[in-house]
Amino acid sequence: MQRTSWWRSNRIWLALILPLLALALAASSFRLSTLYLRWEWSAPVILNGSGVFTQSFQDAKSTQHTRTTKVGVTAVARTTTLASDRPAPGTALWRIELDFAAAPDQLLAGCTIELEDAHGVRYGTQGAKVDASGRPNPLPRKPTCVPRDAPGPELDWAGELVSPSVQRPGVWKSEAAVAMPEGRRPVAVRIMWDKPGYLKLLIPS
Amino acid sequence: MRFTRNGVITSLLVIAALFVGTVIADLLPSEESVLNAPYEHHASIGQPVELRTATITVLGLRSASRITALGNTATTEGIWALVDFTWKPSAQPVSPNQDAVHIKTVDGRKFGGSPPVTNACLPTQTGVTFACSFAFEMDPTALAGAKVVFPAAGSRTGADDVAVIDLGIDSATAQRLAASTEKVLLPPPTVKEP
Predict the structure, then answer these.
(1) B101 and B80 Cβ atoms separated by less than 8 Å
(2) What percent of chain A has pLDDT over 70?
């Protein structure tokens, strides 16, 4: 009888044991993904063919910046050669043409351009290229998102702003080539500046 | 102090429980050892290993007394062990981290790091197989039974997918490799035709 009395008199707290335990665990935990996802390409801005991309980012001195640009895919097509690049055996060369429009003070230098297929697999611009004699090209020319002769403002390794000597035009075109394995087709162009956000332009069919 | 029967039994039970608990705690792995343990895939020469980031197949091992790459030459008082392998990235164009790849020997030593003459396996492309060679400066007496360890590309710690390839070196092969006076030109990474 005494035992029954103890259970009855503590029934409310006994019922609260499990919910309170869950709350205690939650209070002493954190979402691990918030720590590592910002260091991955985890926040795509997906646009259909073209659109405006705006991104906030920090430089090496932790100063906040914002970049805004209008980008459009004008062409993604197979080609046999682009400049001195040819596809290695078993691959096909895809030429990418992009239109850019941005204010001359926007920090747009230092991007990476890739193609993505329907399974989300990424293909870069550097690998599987050979020269005219079929020799591997160990240092292919990296494509840029800005005109080579007028790249606009840039940040150096220390986060210092390097002002340009020539003003970048308001509109320009960029070109890139990706050697993809035969039989694979790109469905999107990825343009990446600073993690975690990046621009994913779906290729118009 | 009075010793009652129940008191003595309780004391003995507590001591026994502490003893059993200590033994179990010693046998169980620590949280750190579990979190930092690599996930090893064991294979032999010629067997492809599918890692998290790429598929790797070690084709064979050669040795040399002198290696040359990109116009630079390095000799050694030991021996240069050259591992020929293929590398096929699976989801993005990554390359093997040459600083993290190493040869581990039977006595537990590791040989690797950045060699003075390097021929990195890059640039690569997703879905394309590249033939590459890495050079390791080694103690010629440590070749027998050695294995080469390839971590998945982009690993920041050892706690990741790791391929451990047995190079199949017996004593006779080790003696032959150790005696090599070959001078080898390391080839650049080339695409293997499908």
Answers:
(1) no
(2) 98
Gap between the Cα atoms of A70 and B175, Å rounded: 64
Encode pLDDT of A23-34 as tens digits: 999 998 878 777
Chain B contact for A180, CB < 8 A? yes
Write the burial class of residue A191 (CB in 10 Å: 0-12 exposed, 13-18 middle, 19+ buried).
buried
* CA A116 to each of CA A125, A180, A186, A203: distance values in angstroms, whole numbers, following the listed order: 12, 10, 5, 10
Mean pLDDT of chain B: 91
**pLDDT confidence of residue B99:** 87
Q: What is the pLDDT of residue A2?
A: 52
> CA of A117: which chain B residue's CA is closest?
B91
Chain B residues lying within 8 Å of A114, measured CB to CB: 92-93
- A18 phi/psi in degrees, rounded to 5: -65, -50
Nearest to A168 by CA among A110, A72, A113, A102: A102
Rounded to whole angstroms, the Cα distance separating A10 from A5 reads 9
Look at B128 and A179 and tell me if their CB atoms are within 8 Å: yes
pLDDT tens figures, B164-190: 999 999 999 999 999 999 999 998 899
Is beta strand A64-79 parallel, antiparallel or unpaired with respect to A50-58? antiparallel
Query: Would you give the DSSP letter of residue A80?
Result: S
> Is residue B35 over pLDDT 90?
no
Which residue of chain B is at minimal alpha-carbon distance from A121?
B91
Cα Rg, chain A, nearest whole Å: 26
Q: For residue B16, report the phi and psi dihedrals to the nearest 5 degrees.
A: -65, -40
Q: How much is the pLDDT for A60?
A: 87
Q: How many other C-beta atoms are found inside a 10 Å radius of the C-beta of residue B159?
A: 14
- For residue A100, the distance in angstroms to the closest alpha carbon of chain B comes to 25
* pTM score of the predicted model: 0.84
Look at residue B158 in the predicted model and tell me its pLDDT. Answer: 67
**pLDDT at position A138 over 90:** no
Q: Which of A117, A123, A131 to mutate to test the interface with B (most CBs of B within 10 A)?
A: A123
